[in-house]
Design a protein that fits this description.
The protein is of the alpha/beta class and 267 residues long. 30% of the residues lie in helices and 27% in strands. A hairpin with a 6-residue loop joins β4 and β5.
Length: 267
């Protein structure tokens, strides 16, 4: 499949983090802008690691919620084309246990998010309706969030962050605790979101190999090498170059199943 790898959108340079003990050590990777002819397609990138690998710590550093002990995370400003250190608010962040106001209706939550985004001002109503449809929330729009299921709350939280704006959406274990049908709805929605904006980058931090890699064009493996004191990036997988990206039925592909086996051996 024809594609081009262009400019760097996010760069992580030698990030280390220690508390009482080292958690991350010299984590470095770059997320590139991948384009295809005549197709508007943002990036979907997975950061894969097993429980206890430092994923949550790296998630918070990428989100600008926590400072690394050393190193830096920079994102490209699409307006100035300059790189700047990431800070809180640069990325739309959806935590594993998403918090959305329990005393507000779904429609009010989404309206507040869109109202805070100047780019949504002129066609706010249409865009809210658009994302409600993408995330299969039409029948829940009048409900208070406290009455939603976990999967419904997850979809509202993702839609909220997209309406808030920003080029990066960072998701912490977005498939955890969801049934198969809900996972399908979430993955389909994420693909649709990526398809709408060439510069939108969705970063999935997860231990769910199959669902994360199935919709990714790029993946990085976070693990602790036998001789290392802490976790680092041990592999970079280009699903695009392997011919395993942008395929709806990729899970049925023998080459994809073989890739899953290889990734498991790296964790």
């Amino acid at each position: 499949m024809t594609y081009e790898i262009k400019e760097t959108l996010l760069q992580v340079n030698n990030v280390s983090k220690s508390y009482d003990v080292p958690i991350l050590e010299n984590v470095s990777f770059e997320i590139k802008n991948i384009t295809r002819p005549n197709i508007h397609q943002g990036q979907i990138v997975s950061l894969i690691g097993k429980s206890g690998s430092g994923k949550s710590t790296l998630f918070r550093i990428l989100a600008g919620l926590e400072e690394p002990t050393s190193g830096r995370v920079q994102v490209k400003n699409m307006d100035t084309h300059e790189y700047q250190d990431v800070k809180e608010g640069d990325m739309g962040v959806v935590f594993q246990n998403s918090y959305i106001f329990p005393w507000r209706r779904v429609e009010d939550i989404l309206d507040m998010a869109a109202s805070a985004n100047p780019k949504m001002k002129e066609n706010k109503k249409e865009l809210i309706e658009h994302y409600v449809e993408i995330f299969s929330l039409s029948e829940h729009i009048k409900k208070y969030s406290k009455n939603l299921s976990g999967g419904q709350k997850q979809r509202v939280a993702i839609a909220e962050q997209i309406l808030n704006g920003g080029d990066f959406i960072l998701l912490d274990e977005p498939f955890s605790g969801l049934d198969t049908l809900t996972i399908d709805k979430v993955t389909q929605a994420l693909v649709k979101i990526a398809e709408e904006d060439e510069h939108k980058t969705i970063i999935i931090v997860s231990h769910d190999l199959s669902n994360a890699l199935a919709i990714s064009d790029t993946a990085f493996i976070l693990s602790k090498p036998p001789t290392a004191k802490a976790a680092t990036i041990t592999a970079h997988l280009s699903l695009a170059s392997a011919g395993l990206a942008w395929q709806p039925d990729i899970k049925e592909n023998p080459a994809f199943r073989e890739l899953l086996k290889q990734v498991k051996s790296l964790l």
